[in-house]
Design a protein that fits this description.
Helices cover 38% and strands 20% of the residues. The chain is of the alpha/beta class. One of its GO terms (molecular function) is ATP hydrolysis activity.
Length: 324
């Protein structure tokens, strides 16, 4: 539990968030800005003292055994914590020395990580010449110098281009295959879908849902048939066709000419709809069978998209914690 401010202006940033992460898995902590993700990570990594409750990381209490926790974890925050005037190799050597490795150990480990993260060719260039993706990889490499049991990744791909994000996803998968346990916070729902074994959705500092990606998507419902008709005048005819044998009501967006209906029989139902629309001479611009996404889940649970700012929490936590 964590509260910022006092009296009437007090904001409960994290309230009774109970998390359990199995060894060798990825837990995705999902939520919009201000939901409490970074505050949770900062408490679990001993950077912020909780106001109540109890948490252990790698078997160590975050309040009474902070040094043991720090010796067991790696942390990559929202912004790359590197010295831009140092080279990539020098940055990693410095991180190694801060982790109390000997100079020789730090050099050897730096060489290994530069190779692993595809930074060897740029190792002796100043970090200020690196692209955004390279900086994030260097920052992540720095968090892995001591082979941490638990790795905290706080929105690691924020601001990266799609290609750089995919590269970082591959690095994360490699760490998991090597036995690492990871807590990943993100606003990118497709990122959680691609990487997390289990997902916890938090909003206003509380857990509002948890489970696998498929379990969360099941909360929204099954597959849906979506149709975009070419002529707005054909909406009523198309609606009648989609409603036949459907598993629920057909929703109609007149502005986009899009109709959506639960698919009772999956692909067979889609084929039948195509035949019926063709027989009725209803011209369509697009048609498809769509599974719910995590975006649908988030909208269903919170009434807004993950990228939208929540109310006062974002302001209060932004001032107090600097991030989430």
């Amino acid at each position: 539990m964590k509260t910022f401010g006092s009296g009437e202006k007090a904001v409960r940033a994290v309230d009774d968030v109970g998390l359990t992460v199995a060894e060798g898995t990825v837990l995705g902590l999902l939520g919009p800005n201000g939901a409490g993700k970074t505050t949770t990570v900062r408490m679990l990594t001993t950077l912020l003292a909780p106001d109540g409750g109890r948490a252990t990381v790698a078997g160590h209490d975050v309040v009474t055994q902070p040094q043991a926790v720090r010796a067991s974890i790696g942390l990559s925050g929202q912004f790359a914590a590197i010295d831009e005037n140092l080279t990539g190799r020098e940055n990693l050597w410095m991180f190694g020395r801060l982790y109390q490795l000997s100079s020789k150990q730090a050099r050897r480990r730096s060489d290994e990580l530069l190779e692993q993260f595809s930074l060897a060719e740029a190792a002796d260039r100043p970090a200020k010449t690196y692209s955004g993706g390279m900086r994030r990889r260097l920052d992540l490499a720095g968090s892995l110098l001591i082979h941490p049991k638990v790795l905290f990744l706080d929105e690691p791909t924020t601001g990266l281009d799609p290609a750089s994000r995919m590269e970082l996803w591959d690095v994360i998968r490699e760490r998991v295959s090597g036995g690492a346990t990871i807590m990943l916070t993100t606003q990118y729902l497709e990122e959680a879908d691609a990487l997390a074994d289990r997902i916890v959705v938090i909003d206003h500092g509380r857990i509002i849902a948890e489970g696998t990606a498929d379990e969360l998507k099941a909360k929204v419902g099954g597959e849906r048939i979506e149709v975009v008709v070419h002529d707005p005048a054909a909406l009523s005819t198309a609606t009648e066709i989609l409603q036949r044998g459907s598993a629920g009501e057909c929703s109609v967006d007149e502005h986009t000419r899009r109709l959506t209906v639960p698919a009772a029989t999956g692909s067979k139902g889609l084929v039948q709809v195509i035949r019926d629309l063709d027989a009725a001479e209803v011209e369509i611009d697009d048609i498809g069978l769509r599974r719910p996404t995590l975006d649908d889940v988030f909208l269903h649970l919170t009434g807004r998209f993950a990228e939208e700012e929540p109310a006062a929490e974002a302001v209060a936590q932004g001032v107090s914690s600097g991030n989430d």
